[in-house]
Amino acid sequence: MPSVHVNLADRSYDIVIGRQLISSIGDRAAELLNCRRCAVVTDSHVAPLYAEAVLRSLTENGIDPILIKVPAGETSKSMSAVEDVCRQMILAGLDRKAFLIALGGGVIGDLAGFAASIFLRGIPFIQVPTTLLSQVDSSVGGKTGVNTPEGKNLLGTFSQPALVIADVATLHTLPQRVYQEGFAEVIKHAAIRDASMFEAIIDIADGQGSLTELVKRNVEIKARIVEQDEHEITGERALLNFGHTIGHAIEASAGYGELFHGEAIALGMIAAARLSSELAGLPPAAVSQLEDLFKRIDLPTRLPENISTEIILDHMKHDKKFSEGKIRFILLRALGDAFVSHDVSTEHITDAIKGLRF
């Protein structure tokens, strides 16, 4: 069975990728963790599909679980939701020998991971991502967090999971729009590190190729970057933010849940690619290749008219990538060759946002 090891000394863990893995969660948890109680945190969409199988697997392996459900959607990435999850764990009598399972997409992974990192000053957690976006990106690397009205993921921690279980069979139950948005992060990995993956993306879009292999290739890219720069200090991990500076601001400006994360990031990547052509020599043909691929996946390539440039810029002021008034922006020299630039001005960004309307 395919797996990827993330080597982070005493915080190392495995990412297991395959099909029909949900029923093995209890076996893996019992073998890995010396814990007999746990919380399974999921949302109102995922719970009817997979919660029963997860709970059964846990109880069959001598683990006593409680189920905590939150409303599906980006609005659950909030401090009030974190408090609710933690209080339910307290009321259920969970202690520091308990662990948590995050069963769902990126919202659940970020929310539940954050709750685990602060509950009684930290308990282990297992990521069980059920969307393409969370399997290839958000479940790996240890970033947890919630949103505020001012911006995305402004409150959070670095807290590595004990294990990631990516069951690609869960992707077949996703609504089409949710499935498609995950390709934004796949395209991002190809753009910053592995241009050869564009062919595999097209194959999947055409109903061919292996989803398991595609997820594994993406996870390997992210794992190697995280190993080099776990806490985003040297700048290597910042490459994973390609398209996210503008994309996060667009997502917040639209209102969380109006534009899905991957949809907003697709727009952010188009803007970043155009800036790369202007400032870093990215060939115009490469920009067109990216835009054509987004269209093929049915991701947006034009900014909705009701989102003003001024509101997007206002949200960007709160971005974590601003330091001493300067923006750390990811550009491409070529597809597969990304770098951190400090030479992108507010004027450049303003023009790039305006360009998304045409």
Q: What attributes characterize this protein structure?
A:
358 residues, alpha/beta, Rossmann fold, Dehydroquinate synthase-like, alpha domain, 7-stranded mixed β-sheet, two-stranded antiparallel sheet, 14 helices, 45% helix, 19% strand
Number of domains: 2
CATH architecture of the largest domain: Up-down Bundle
Sheet with most strands: strand arrangement: 1-2-9-6-5-3-4
Percent in helix: 40-55%
**Would you report the number of β strands?**
13
How far apart the termini lie comes to 46 Å
Structural class: alpha/beta
Q: What is the CATH top level name of the largest domain?
A: Mainly Alpha
Number of helices: 14
Question: How would you describe the shape?
Answer: globular
Rounded to an integer in angstroms, the radius of gyration calculated over CA atoms is: 20 Å
User: Any idea of the CATH topology of the largest domain?
Assistant: Dehydroquinate synthase-like, alpha domain
How confident overall, as mean pLDDT?
95
Strand content: 15-25%
Written description of the protein model:
The protein has 14 helices and 13 strands. By secondary structure, it is α/β, with parallel strands linked by helices. A seven-stranded mixed β-sheet has the order 1-2-9-6-5-3-4, with helices on both faces. A two-stranded antiparallel ribbon has the order 7-8. A two-stranded antiparallel ribbon has the order 10-11. The protein is globular, with a radius of gyration of 20 Å. Helix content is 45%, strand content 19%. Helix 7 runs antiparallel to helix 12 (284-297) and helix 10 crosses helix 13 (309-316). The protein has helices at residues 25-32, 47-60, 79-91, 106-118, 132-138, 176-181, 183-192, 197-205, 211-228, 244-254, 261-279, 284-297, 309-316, 346-355, and strands at 3-6, 13-18, 37-43, 64-70, 99-104, 125-129, 143-148, 151-158, 163-167, 322-323, 326-327, 329-334, 337-341. The chain folds into two domains: 3-173, Rossmann fold (3-Layer(aba) Sandwich); 180-355, Dehydroquinate synthase-like - alpha domain (Dehydroquinate synthase-like, alpha domain, Up-down Bundle), CATH 1.20.1090.
